[in-house]
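Researcher: Next entry in the queue.
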Amino acid sequence: MKIFCTEEGDRLQLKFKYDEKIVQVVRNIKGRKYNSYDRTWTVPNNIINRNLINNEFEVCVDSFDQLLSIKGYSNSTKKAYKAHIKRFKEFLNKDLNEVTVEDIKNYMYYLMNIKDNSNSYTTQAYSAIKLYCNYILNKNIEFKNFPRPKTVKPLPKVLSEEDVTKILNSVTNQKHRTILYVVYSSGLRVSEVVSLKVSDIDSNRMTIFVKDSKGNKDRYTILAQETLNELRRYFKLYRPKDWLFPGADKSEHLSVRSVQKIFKKACIKANINKNVGIYSLRHSFATHLLEYGTDIRYIQELLGHSSTKTTQIYTHVTNKDLKKIVSPIDRIAKK
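Model: Structure for this entry, 335 residues:
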């Protein structure tokens, strides 16, 4: 029995020609879901299900998924790239082997001017298509002089210390409260906090180990005393075994989407009316450290940036030096 299996972050996507025997096996998997739109099944991506699928079926591997894995892309990037290729194929309404330069140009124009997507979204679509054409289709398309969207780097949205305090204090659920404490106090990405294991917390050295972060790099970041106190209260109530923040299925960690919802609800409850997301806690961590005089090279290491050039964006949003500047209107008023 042959099936086509690809990783979609914390889910495994299964495609196969209808076979009642395969369907019966998949239906017995806990947490399975059926997508009627593209006629695929998805199941939780864990070692038990991977072993079951490999033992029960003849598994065909997605060559693009395999390529992305070999190149070391993160699960979120792999998912995004594969989604871009799927949408590009739907736009063309023809076999990708027939793709031309004009097809790609038309699609870029469609994304930017018809769908009004951002530059960064369109650039990622371009990168996915370029990779697919070069390595999977082996198409001789000259991308060197190919037009691509101008990179726009918006300033990060930062919360004040008062806003962060309101958000943290608005959460009464200890698990949810602890998650937000960890994100802000250690500067973690949301994908990193959900992937933490109990063994990653070192209360003796007051560090948190972050494994396989963006760029497949391991790093250590700080563990604040207040966060350790919250973690200890959380441990007494929930007793996590493997994943620090498990999902409904204890063998799986909490999803990124769940944490995003936790933060959004906390903002509403705290009456924070700014258009911010969970990533703003990480931005605020970096900016607040900078405002208190922490060397930017240390902040770079804590955030897991490859270069200080990436970290320097926070120098544009810190108000440490802005507070020293007196507006001309205030000088006039004094006179």
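Model: The CA atoms of residues 72 and 325 lie 46 Å apart.
Researcher: Noted, moving on.
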